[in-house]
Design a protein that fits this description.
Number of domains: 1
Largest sheet: none
Distance between the termini: 25 Å
Strand content: under 5%
Shape: globular
Helix content: 55-70%
Length: 166
C-alpha cells in the first residue's frame, strides 16, 4: 500500500484553479461579447459609478468578424484570448492556499483575484505590443487599463476560486 499525502477528491467539486479558470472564461465570453458591449455602450452612463463599472467589464471585447481585413479576427481578439490563457496559467501557478501559513478560503480568494489582475495586465501589455502599430508607450497605457480591469473584475474570479478545493 502506497502512502501519499494527497488530498482526497470530493465528487462534484473541482480545484480552486479549475473553478477560477471556468469563471474567467465565462466572464470574458459574456462581458466581452459583442451583444454585451453594444448594450453597455447604449444603456449606461459613463459618468456614473455603475455605468463605469459595467463598461469596464466589457474591456476584453472580442468580435466574431473583423472590421479591418488587414488585422483579421485574431488581431482584434488578441487581448481576450491572452486574458483567458494567462488567467488559467496564473491560477495554476499561484497555489497560495497550498503554501500559505494559514490555509483556507482567504488565501484562495486572494490568489484567484491576484492571478486575474496579473493576467489582465500582461494580456493588455502583450496585446498592445504584438498588435498592429504597437509601441511601448501605448503598451504601458494599455497595461494600466488592464490592471484596473483586473482589480475591479478579479474579485469574481477570487469568489469562484472559493468553490474548489486547494
Amino acid at each position: 500500500m502506497a502512502l501519499t499525502n494527497r488530498p482526497r477528491t470530493v465528487s462534484g467539486y473541482g480545484t480552486a484553479a479549475g473553478t477560477g479558470s471556468l469563471a474567467a472564461l465565462l466572464l470574458v465570453a459574456v462581458c466581452g461579447s459583442p451583444m454585451y458591449v453594444s448594450w453597455v455602450q447604449d444603456h449606461t452612463d459613463p459618468n456614473g459609478a455603475g455605468g463605469w463599472f459595467l463598461r469596464l467589464l466589457a474591456w476584453p471585447a472580442w468580435k466574431l468578424h473583423s472590421d479591418d481585413p488587414q488585422h483579421g479576427v485574431l488581431g482584434d481578439d488578441l487581448r481576450a484570448i491572452l486574458l483567458v490563457i494567462l488567467a488559467i496559467a496564473f491560477l495554476y501557478l499561484l497555489p497560495t492556499s497550498q503554501v500559505a501559513r494559514v490555509q483556507g478560503s482567504a488565501s484562495q480568494f486572494f490568489s484567484g483575484w491576484a492571478a486575474y489582475v496579473l493576467a489582465a495586465g500582461f494580456a493588455a501589455l502583450l496585446a498592445a505590443l504584438l498588435g498592429p502599430g504597437g509601441s511601448l508607450y501605448a503598451a504601458f497605457q494599455a497595461t494600466g487599463v488592464g490592471v484596473t480591469y483586473g482589480f475591479f473584475a478579479g474579485w469574481v474570479i477570487g469568489l469562484a476560486s472559493l468553490g474548489g478545493r486547494a
